[in-house]
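re: that chain from earlier
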Amino acid sequence: MPETRLLIDPYLDWIKDEGIPVYEDFGFDLLTLDLKPWSRMGANGAFALVTGRGDYLDTFVLEIPAGGSTDPQRHLFEEVVYVLSGNGSTTIENPDGSKHSFEWGPKSLFAIPLNAKYRHFNTSGNKAARFVSTTNLPMIMKLFHDYDFIFNNPYHFAGRMGENRYFEGEGEFIPNRPGRHMWETNFVPDLSTFELKEWQDRGAGGSNIMFALAQGTMHAHMSEMPVGTYKKGHRHGADFHIFPVTGHGYSILWFDGEKDFKRFDWQHGSVYAPEDMMFHQHFNTSPEPARYLAVAFGGLRYPFSEDKRKVFLGMDVNIKKGGKQIEYEDQDPRIHPLYLEELAKHGADARMDKFFPVKS
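^ sequence. v structure.
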């Protein structure tokens, strides 16, 4: 009698059979990750699984050779794409045969509408194009554990396509309040130049925008730290994948009660994710504003879980008042001197006098 399998994870079973590398670590440099041919996609790929990914999300890196393209795809999971390098285009097909096509380049962001037919193309004749996709495939695999249903489902989600202009880099600004302003679209041509809105409560001179992409449950937002500044410490549940876009810096991370910090140095091409309820704080050490993209499951429009609802209600509320944030005056006294030392190494000056007056 065959042995009965228990504690099965259909997602892990699936990725082991895909024939490409599976990397697991706290964070990665996605630009240098070694990739292998992925027959399903018709390009080179690897799974890059961060330890703080949680139960819902994964990330994979895909590289399309110069002049190449992926094989046509369709799937019953959501996907948010951030372009790391190279130039290309994506074509998304409607059931009636009409198509939406848009051209992307480094630091573009876009979402694949749920279960839509699509294909990626590298428009350069001499340079590979590489991007990273964050998906909720682990959740979908665990829920249905039926590969044919996930990859060959004919149902068309008409409400997920959005307006035609959403594929052209246009969108709609949905005002709310600082930290909750939204931009609805399917495609952002360049995150490094996209206009952000002020969000002072999260840190010195910071700004932010939330994205509503393809009517999905996936969350994405972008934040910016001015030169010589850093954000306030905070914590939340797992699965917030952080992709630095401009500048460089570092983040420190720790669990409540821990004496020592964990550190991760970052720049464009990196990805990392704080683990469940792990405090973390981001620091800009570059001579330019530092931006980062965060992708998670459950957003401001569709939070999905009660935990995410609490995150979006309390992400800039003092932890002493039931929120998620540590105010500057309450942070560990080692943090600010450490930042000043790091700035000195880069020949930069702090611009935090409003919060930490310089003693004469």
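The chain has five helices and 23 strands.
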